[in-house]
Model the fold of this input.
Amino acid sequence: MLKGKNAIVTGSTSGIGLAIAHSVAAEGCNVLLNGFADKAAITALVNELQNTYKVKVDYSPADMSKPKDIADMVGMCERVFGSCDILVNNAGIQFTAPVQDFPDDKWDSIIAINLSAAFHATKAALPGMQKRQYGRIVNIASVHGLVASVNKAAYVAAKHGIVGLTKVVAIENGENNITCNAICPGWVHTPLVQKQIEDNAKKANISEDEATKQMLDKQAMKKFNKPEQIGGLVVFLCSDTAATMTGTPVIIDGGWTAE
Done:
Protein backbone atom coordinates (compact mmCIF):
# COMPACT_ATOMS: atom_id res chain seq x y z
CA MET A 1 0.00 0.00 0.00
CA LEU A 2 2.92 2.37 0.70
CA LYS A 3 5.46 0.86 -1.68
CA GLY A 4 8.14 3.34 -2.67
CA LYS A 5 7.24 5.88 0.02
CA ASN A 6 9.74 7.12 2.59
CA ALA A 7 8.85 7.66 6.25
CA ILE A 8 10.31 9.09 9.42
CA VAL A 9 8.93 7.62 12.65
CA THR A 10 10.20 9.39 15.75
CA GLY A 11 10.58 7.46 18.98
CA SER A 12 10.59 4.21 17.02
CA THR A 13 13.12 2.01 18.80
CA SER A 14 10.46 0.61 21.15
CA GLY A 15 6.76 0.57 22.01
CA ILE A 16 4.19 2.26 19.77
CA GLY A 17 6.81 3.80 17.49
CA LEU A 18 8.45 0.45 16.79
CA ALA A 19 5.05 -1.07 15.97
CA ILE A 20 4.39 1.80 13.56
CA ALA A 21 7.77 1.25 11.90
CA HIS A 22 6.89 -2.43 11.40
CA SER A 23 3.45 -1.56 10.03
CA VAL A 24 4.63 0.92 7.40
CA ALA A 25 7.61 -1.24 6.42
CA ALA A 26 5.26 -4.18 5.93
CA GLU A 27 3.44 -2.06 3.33
CA GLY A 28 6.66 -1.43 1.38
CA CYS A 29 7.68 1.89 2.94
CA ASN A 30 11.33 2.77 3.59
CA VAL A 31 11.82 3.87 7.20
CA LEU A 32 14.12 6.20 9.08
CA LEU A 33 14.10 5.12 12.71
CA ASN A 34 14.76 7.43 15.63
CA GLY A 35 15.05 6.92 19.36
CA PHE A 36 17.36 5.84 22.13
CA ALA A 37 18.95 2.38 22.38
CA ASP A 38 22.45 0.94 22.42
CA LYS A 39 24.28 0.57 19.12
CA ALA A 40 23.93 -3.21 18.96
CA ALA A 41 20.17 -3.07 19.52
CA ILE A 42 19.74 -0.42 16.82
CA THR A 43 21.83 -2.40 14.33
CA ALA A 44 19.77 -5.52 15.06
CA LEU A 45 16.53 -3.58 14.62
CA VAL A 46 17.62 -2.05 11.30
CA ASN A 47 18.68 -5.48 10.02
CA GLU A 48 15.44 -7.10 11.18
CA LEU A 49 13.24 -4.58 9.38
CA GLN A 50 15.34 -4.68 6.21
CA ASN A 51 15.45 -8.46 6.05
CA THR A 52 11.80 -8.99 6.98
CA TYR A 53 10.19 -6.43 4.71
CA LYS A 54 12.85 -5.91 1.98
CA VAL A 55 12.81 -2.14 2.38
CA LYS A 56 15.51 0.44 3.08
CA VAL A 57 15.96 1.26 6.76
CA ASP A 58 18.26 3.75 8.44
CA TYR A 59 18.57 5.36 11.85
CA SER A 60 18.86 8.93 13.14
CA PRO A 61 20.03 9.57 16.73
CA ALA A 62 18.34 13.00 16.72
CA ASP A 63 17.45 14.33 20.17
CA MET A 64 13.82 15.38 19.96
CA SER A 65 14.41 18.24 22.40
CA LYS A 66 16.84 19.91 19.97
CA PRO A 67 15.42 21.71 16.90
CA LYS A 68 18.70 21.45 14.95
CA ASP A 69 18.85 17.69 15.49
CA ILE A 70 15.27 17.41 14.25
CA ALA A 71 15.97 19.45 11.10
CA ASP A 72 19.08 17.35 10.46
CA MET A 73 16.98 14.17 10.81
CA VAL A 74 14.52 15.34 8.15
CA GLY A 75 17.44 16.35 5.92
CA MET A 76 18.96 12.89 6.39
CA CYS A 77 15.72 11.23 5.27
CA GLU A 78 15.60 13.37 2.14
CA ARG A 79 19.28 12.76 1.42
CA VAL A 80 19.33 8.99 2.05
CA PHE A 81 15.92 8.03 0.65
CA GLY A 82 15.29 10.91 -1.76
CA SER A 83 12.27 12.38 0.02
CA CYS A 84 10.27 12.47 3.22
CA ASP A 85 6.77 11.46 2.18
CA ILE A 86 5.45 10.39 5.58
CA LEU A 87 6.21 11.91 8.97
CA VAL A 88 4.98 10.20 12.12
CA ASN A 89 5.51 12.34 15.21
CA ASN A 90 5.44 9.75 17.96
CA ALA A 91 8.24 10.53 20.43
CA GLY A 92 6.99 11.30 23.91
CA ILE A 93 7.75 11.22 27.62
CA GLN A 94 5.64 11.37 30.78
CA PHE A 95 5.83 12.66 34.35
CA THR A 96 3.04 12.93 36.88
CA ALA A 97 2.55 15.34 39.80
CA PRO A 98 -0.02 17.90 40.98
CA VAL A 99 0.38 21.29 39.33
CA GLN A 100 1.73 22.98 42.47
CA ASP A 101 4.40 20.29 42.81
CA PHE A 102 5.25 19.89 39.12
CA PRO A 103 9.00 20.48 38.57
CA ASP A 104 9.74 23.25 36.09
CA ASP A 105 12.32 21.15 34.25
CA LYS A 106 9.85 18.28 33.82
CA TRP A 107 7.26 20.66 32.36
CA ASP A 108 9.82 22.07 29.93
CA SER A 109 11.01 18.60 28.86
CA ILE A 110 7.52 17.24 28.25
CA ILE A 111 6.44 20.28 26.24
CA ALA A 112 9.69 20.14 24.23
CA ILE A 113 9.52 16.46 23.32
CA ASN A 114 5.75 15.86 23.19
CA LEU A 115 4.75 19.08 21.41
CA SER A 116 7.59 21.28 20.16
CA ALA A 117 9.38 18.35 18.50
CA ALA A 118 6.33 17.69 16.33
CA PHE A 119 6.28 21.35 15.31
CA HIS A 120 9.97 21.39 14.40
CA ALA A 121 9.79 18.11 12.46
CA THR A 122 6.69 19.25 10.57
CA LYS A 123 8.26 22.63 9.80
CA ALA A 124 11.33 20.88 8.39
CA ALA A 125 9.37 18.32 6.35
CA LEU A 126 6.75 20.64 4.83
CA PRO A 127 8.89 22.44 2.21
CA GLY A 128 9.79 19.16 0.50
CA MET A 129 6.23 17.86 0.75
CA GLN A 130 4.88 21.11 -0.69
CA LYS A 131 7.38 21.01 -3.55
CA ARG A 132 6.35 17.45 -4.42
CA GLN A 133 2.67 18.17 -3.76
CA TYR A 134 2.41 15.10 -1.55
CA GLY A 135 2.73 14.38 2.15
CA ARG A 136 1.20 12.45 5.03
CA ILE A 137 1.76 13.68 8.58
CA VAL A 138 0.45 11.62 11.48
CA ASN A 139 0.77 12.93 15.02
CA ILE A 140 0.45 10.43 17.84
CA ALA A 141 -1.59 12.38 20.35
CA SER A 142 -3.61 10.69 23.10
CA VAL A 143 -7.05 10.58 24.59
CA HIS A 144 -5.44 13.27 26.76
CA GLY A 145 -5.48 15.51 23.71
CA LEU A 146 -9.24 15.63 24.23
CA VAL A 147 -9.83 15.13 27.96
CA ALA A 148 -7.79 15.57 31.12
CA SER A 149 -6.60 13.47 34.04
CA VAL A 150 -5.20 14.56 37.37
CA ASN A 151 -1.45 14.96 37.84
CA LYS A 152 -0.75 15.15 34.10
CA ALA A 153 -0.72 18.91 33.45
CA ALA A 154 2.24 18.95 31.07
CA TYR A 155 1.23 15.81 29.16
CA VAL A 156 -2.39 16.96 28.76
CA ALA A 157 -1.30 20.44 27.69
CA ALA A 158 1.14 19.00 25.15
CA LYS A 159 -1.36 16.54 23.70
CA HIS A 160 -4.09 19.19 23.45
CA GLY A 161 -1.46 21.26 21.64
CA ILE A 162 -0.74 18.39 19.25
CA VAL A 163 -4.42 18.21 18.28
CA GLY A 164 -4.44 21.97 17.66
CA LEU A 165 -1.22 21.86 15.65
CA THR A 166 -2.67 19.02 13.57
CA LYS A 167 -5.66 21.16 12.59
CA VAL A 168 -3.56 24.17 11.62
CA VAL A 169 -1.17 22.13 9.47
CA ALA A 170 -4.17 20.47 7.81
CA ILE A 171 -5.94 23.68 6.83
CA GLU A 172 -2.74 25.38 5.70
CA ASN A 173 -1.89 22.49 3.36
CA GLY A 174 -5.23 21.38 1.99
CA GLU A 175 -4.29 22.65 -1.47
CA ASN A 176 -0.96 20.81 -1.43
CA ASN A 177 -2.19 17.19 -1.26
CA ILE A 178 -0.75 17.02 2.26
CA THR A 179 -2.85 15.55 5.03
CA CYS A 180 -2.26 15.91 8.75
CA ASN A 181 -4.16 13.83 11.29
CA ALA A 182 -3.79 12.89 14.94
CA ILE A 183 -4.32 9.49 16.54
CA CYS A 184 -5.76 9.67 20.06
CA PRO A 185 -5.33 6.32 21.83
CA GLY A 186 -6.52 5.33 25.25
CA TRP A 187 -4.27 2.91 27.11
CA VAL A 188 -1.83 1.03 24.87
CA HIS A 189 -0.06 -2.01 26.30
CA THR A 190 3.65 -1.29 25.96
CA PRO A 191 6.61 -2.24 28.18
CA LEU A 192 6.39 1.21 29.80
CA VAL A 193 2.70 0.75 30.63
CA GLN A 194 3.40 -2.75 31.97
CA LYS A 195 6.02 -1.26 34.28
CA GLN A 196 3.46 1.34 35.40
CA ILE A 197 1.02 -1.46 36.25
CA GLU A 198 3.70 -3.24 38.27
CA ASP A 199 4.70 -0.03 40.07
CA ASN A 200 1.08 0.87 40.87
CA ALA A 201 0.42 -2.61 42.20
CA LYS A 202 3.47 -2.48 44.44
CA LYS A 203 2.71 1.04 45.67
CA ALA A 204 -0.91 0.22 46.54
CA ASN A 205 -0.12 -3.30 47.76
CA ILE A 206 -2.61 -4.82 45.31
CA SER A 207 -2.36 -7.44 42.59
CA GLU A 208 -1.32 -6.53 39.06
CA ASP A 209 -4.79 -7.61 37.88
CA GLU A 210 -6.40 -5.12 40.26
CA ALA A 211 -3.96 -2.41 39.20
CA THR A 212 -4.84 -3.12 35.57
CA LYS A 213 -8.56 -2.96 36.37
CA GLN A 214 -8.10 0.45 38.02
CA MET A 215 -6.11 1.71 35.05
CA LEU A 216 -8.82 0.70 32.56
CA ASP A 217 -11.67 1.98 34.70
CA LYS A 218 -12.40 5.00 32.46
CA GLN A 219 -12.77 2.85 29.36
CA ALA A 220 -16.05 1.14 28.45
CA MET A 221 -14.00 -1.67 26.93
CA LYS A 222 -11.78 -2.99 29.68
CA LYS A 223 -8.85 -3.91 27.51
CA PHE A 224 -5.74 -2.30 26.16
CA ASN A 225 -5.06 -1.17 22.64
CA LYS A 226 -2.23 -3.11 21.04
CA PRO A 227 0.71 -1.17 19.53
CA GLU A 228 0.11 -2.82 16.16
CA GLN A 229 -3.42 -1.39 16.12
CA ILE A 230 -1.90 2.09 16.23
CA GLY A 231 0.43 1.03 13.43
CA GLY A 232 -2.54 -0.12 11.38
CA LEU A 233 -4.24 3.26 11.84
CA VAL A 234 -1.10 5.03 10.66
CA VAL A 235 -1.07 2.89 7.50
CA PHE A 236 -4.74 3.71 6.89
CA LEU A 237 -4.18 7.46 7.31
CA CYS A 238 -1.29 7.30 4.83
CA SER A 239 -3.28 5.29 2.28
CA ASP A 240 -5.28 6.49 -0.70
CA THR A 241 -8.46 5.56 1.17
CA ALA A 242 -7.80 8.43 3.59
CA ALA A 243 -6.61 10.90 0.93
CA THR A 244 -9.28 13.48 1.86
CA MET A 245 -9.16 12.83 5.59
CA THR A 246 -7.27 15.67 7.27
CA GLY A 247 -7.29 17.74 10.44
CA THR A 248 -8.98 14.86 12.25
CA PRO A 249 -8.36 13.48 15.74
CA VAL A 250 -8.86 9.72 15.26
CA ILE A 251 -9.97 8.24 18.58
CA ILE A 252 -9.11 4.67 19.56
CA ASP A 253 -9.84 4.68 23.28
CA GLY A 254 -12.17 1.80 24.13
CA GLY A 255 -15.01 4.25 24.74
CA TRP A 256 -13.12 6.49 27.21
CA THR A 257 -14.36 9.74 25.66
CA ALA A 258 -17.85 8.48 24.75
CA GLU A 259 -19.33 9.42 28.13
Remarks:
- The mean pLDDT is 97.
- Helices lie at 15-26, 39-53, 67-81, 104-132, 153-172, 191-204, 208-215, 227-238.
